[in-house]
């Protein structure tokens, strides 16, 4: 794993965006895997700036999002569909038919099968962007998820629902289930860019760097992937683990 540390979240976001923009310019037909959550929002902001100032075009780009809440309509502002529209898609020249996000309102099991078909048809993903859950989850793959999992329905842990309740009125409004790309669907990407930001991720980041590869800590699978780049900001670094 190639690890780069940045002094701040702003620097991390700029670094991530220039990396992604460069990849899009090198391969205009790139297939990107996209993440939601707080971590990548700064990167999306910068990608929009790069689209405007450098003319980075997304006309021929295909995207796959990691996950969506079960029972969440696209119109709900907490859906990941709405998140992507707000933070990226409505600001760039991407074509709607090439942006794939699981449909939270479809029959969940059928939707998982359909999503896998789409991944087979339009994939593989060239560059997968990931955030890191405080419990080591990637996508919505909670601890204990088999490494061989493909797109599936997951019951969210209380800790994840609590963490995400900051976007809702309260934890009781956070959906109990989600559709997520599985761990095997994620690591099938040719390259992975993991973004780690904030003191709340310190413990998880340390576990990723120094812990064992185990299904109890889903992100640990990344150690087996041949092409992983990690961008971490200073606040995510434990003072006891200095990385050059
Ligand atoms: O960036 P955040 O908000 O800390 O979230 C970390 C991870 O948790 C999720 O939002 C799911 O809870 C992932 O999609 C994300 O990568």
UniProtKB/TrEMBL annotation:
It holds the Pfam family Glucosamine_iso. Its EC number is 3.5.99.6. It is an enzyme of class 3 (hydrolase). Residues 10-223 form the Glucosamine/galactosamine-6-phosphate isomerase domain. The active site is at residues 67, 135, 137, 142. It catalyses: alpha-D-glucosamine 6-phosphate + H2O = beta-D-fructose 6-phosphate + NH4(+). InterPro entries: Glc/Gal-6P_isomerase (IPR006148), Glucosamine6P_isomerase (IPR004547), Glucosamine6P_isomerase_CS (IPR018321), NagB/RpiA_transferase-like (IPR037171). The keyword Hydrolase applies. Belongs to the glucosamine/galactosamine-6-phosphate isomerase family. NagB subfamily. Pathway: Amino-sugar metabolism; N-acetylneuraminate degradation; D-fructose 6-phosphate from N-acetylneuraminate: step 5/5. Keywords: Carbohydrate metabolism, Hydrolase. The keyword Aminoacyl-tRNA synthetase does not apply. Catalyzes the reversible isomerization-deamination of glucosamine 6-phosphate (GlcN6P) to form fructose 6-phosphate (Fru6P) and ammonium ion. It comes from the Bacteria. This is Glucosamine-6-phosphate deaminase. SUPFAM superfamilies: NagB/RpiA/CoA transferase-like. It comes from Sutcliffiella horikoshii.
